[in-house]
Structure formats: C-alpha cells, structure tokens
C-alpha cells in the first residue's frame, strides 16, 4: 500500500530500531555468515526473514534449526557468545539508515511523543547508539529493550506487548494490555492505540503493531521484498509500505509537514 493518501491523525509514534533506524542488520548477517563459513553453511535471506524481530535466543534456535548437521560444539551458547564478540567490534561503526535522522529530529522538534521498542538487549542498544547522539538523543531515554524486564518472557514480537509497554511507560498513555481485539481492552483504550503509528522493518514487528491496534508503516529490507516477503494474514497487513523512511510524508498522517 502506498503512502499517497490521507490517513488517520497520529498523535504518538513508536520506532523499531534494527534495520529501520540503523543499518545493523548488515552486521548480524555478516557476522553470522563469518561463523558459519568454515562449515560450508550460509544464512540466506529466506532464513533470515524468519529471524527478524525475534528475541536473541529464540532467533538463534530458529537459525540453527536449518543446520542440524553442525558439530555439537557449534551450540546455541557458542554461537551467541562468538557472535557477540564479533558484533561488539562493529556496533560503534553502524550508521543511520536513509531518512531516519531527518524524520526523528523533525518529530522531536514538533514535540510529537515518540519512543523506541527494540528486540535488542540493553547492552547492545548502548553499543549501537552511543555514537549516534544526533539520532537517539531525540528519544530522551524513551527506549524499551528486550531484556529490560518490562515485557514478559516469551512475549516478544509478534506479540504486541513491547509497543504497549512503550506507550504506557514512556508516553503516559492508557492503552491496557493484550491484543486490541481482546474483550479486556476498553473502547477508550482502543481509541488511544489507534492514534499510534509504529515504524517497522520486520514482519513480526508489523504483526505486533497491528495486534496492538496501532497503525503500521512497513519499511522492509529490499532483500526481503525480493523474496516476496509479505505479512501472513489479511488483517495484519501494514497500513503503508515504503522503500525507505525518506518516502514518509508526515502530513498524510496528520503530523507536521517538513519545512520547505
């Protein structure tokens, strides 16, 4: 779906991070394939598509399920430890993706409430963001990470919890708990959720945003699009699909337009 039509007025915004604000997915891919190469294995994009948005260990289990003939020494714990060591050397060089700084600074300038909801661990977030103050300072600490203890274990994306925690804890909104369709969520809470806009690059994140009852802008990696990647259920399709954040038009969502 294009972004060329007038859409509901948005009052608060939540961003994913990896592959959406910063070019960190490249590091995940390069490091994993560096570890797999001695065994003649490769994480292709059709495999990686199923990892995006999942918590770290869950993603590792899914990845290694494709390579059952790896030696016992290549365990999940070994993979996570070795990968972390290589990644830590590269996180301080990660750069923002096109349009990310412009959009975030624009929303911050106009005092649009916003937060980050990422499946990254807190330590990794700090390594990825410390050199990117121009981007992340705009969030003023409103960042939910997978291991902050704010989201129940096993309730990562595609569950909506991380977006609801971000909205409640950092944006001060009464959004309730659980999926928007659940009877425990009041009409008032659904109305508040519907004023939220989620930016995501991964399919599980799109599903989480829609299950939260929020609007979702999907900015998929070109490699995922090349696979024919799309959401799995009609009622969980994104509200808008863009090639990059540079294509986002704020006024289409009732947000302040960019300065001329």
UniProtKB/TrEMBL annotation:
One of its GO terms (molecular function) is phosphatase activity. SUPFAM superfamilies: HAD-like (SSF56784). InterPro entries: HAD-like_sf (IPR036412), HAD_sf (IPR023214), PGP-like_dom2 (IPR023198). Pfam families: Hydrolase. Gene3D superfamilies: HAD superfamily/HAD-like, Putative phosphatase, domain 2. PANTHER family: 2-DEOXYGLUCOSE-6-PHOSPHATE PHOSPHATASE 2, PSEUDOURIDINE-5'-PHOSPHATASE. This is HAD-like protein. It comes from Dichomitus squalens.
